[in-house]
Amino acid sequence: MLFKKDLIDLILAGKKTMTSRSKKLCDVGDLTNLMANKDYSKLTGKYLRITKVYRKFLGEFTVEDSHKEGFEGLGEFKSYWEQNIGSWDPTQFLWIHEFDIELKKMNSC
Fold first, then answer.
1. How far apart are CA 57 and CA 86, in angstroms?
2. In terms of C-beta density within 10 A (0-12 exposed, 13-18 middle, 19 or more buried), how is residue 107 classed?
3. Distances from the Cα of 5 to the Cαs of 9, 29, 92, 94, in angstroms?
4. How far is 28 from 8, CA to CA, in rounded Å?
5. 2 pLDDT tier (thresholds 50, 70, 90)
6. At the topology level of CATH, where does 2-102 sit?
7. Is the separation of the CB atoms in 81 and 59 below 8 Å?
8. When you count CB atoms within 10 A of the terminal residue's CB, does the N or C end of the chain come out lower?
9. What phi and psi values does residue 22 have, to the nearest 5 degrees?
10. pLDDT given for residue 101 in this prediction
11. Strand 31-36 to strand 2-3: parallel, antiparallel, or no bridges (unpaired)?
C-alpha cells in the first residue's frame, strides 16, 4: 500500500493501525509492502499484515477511528482528510483496512 511519508512515520511509530480507502485493496491475512508515494523512498522494507477489512461511512467515524488513523482526535483527522483527500462527505462509503507491521514477507496482495 502507498502512503505519504508523514503517515509512514506514524505507522512505524505504532500510532497508525488503520487506513481508509475508496476501494478494497487486500483481504484479512494478506501481507502488503509498506511503500511511500513520490515524496519518500519507495520501499521501507516492512510489510503490513491485514487484520480486518470492512466498509464504513465517513460520517460514522469516531474518535477511536481517528486514533487508529494516527491522529489525536476526529477534528485533526477531518482536517487532514480535507487538506489531502477531499471534502468531508459523511455519505462517502470507504473500505477500512486495519493492520499490524510485519518484518518479513509471506503472502502479499
1. 15
2. exposed
3. 6, 25, 25, 22
4. 20
5. confident
6. Sulfate adenylyltransferase (3.10.400)
7. no
8. C
9. -75, -15
10. 87
11. parallel
* Rg, Å, the chain Cα set: 13
Sign of CA dihedral 33, 106, 22, 95: negative
Query: pTM here?
Result: 0.87
CB-based contact 20:69 (threshold 8 Å): yes
Q: Residue 109 and residue 102: Cα distance in Å, rounded?
A: 14
User: In this structure, are residues 25 and 1 in contact, taking their beta carbons and an 8 Å threshold?
Assistant: yes
What confidence tens digit (pLDDT) does each residue in 4-54 have? Answer: 888 988 998 999 999 999 999 999 999 888 887 655 555 667 889 999 999
Q: Is 105 helix (H, G, I), strand (E, B) or coil?
A: coil
Query: What is the torsional sign of CA 39, 103, 30, 107?
Result: positive
Residue 74 grid coordinates:
476526529
Query: What pLDDT digit, counting tens, does each position of 42-89 carry?
Result: 566 788 999 999 999 999 999 999 999 999 999 999 999 999 999 999
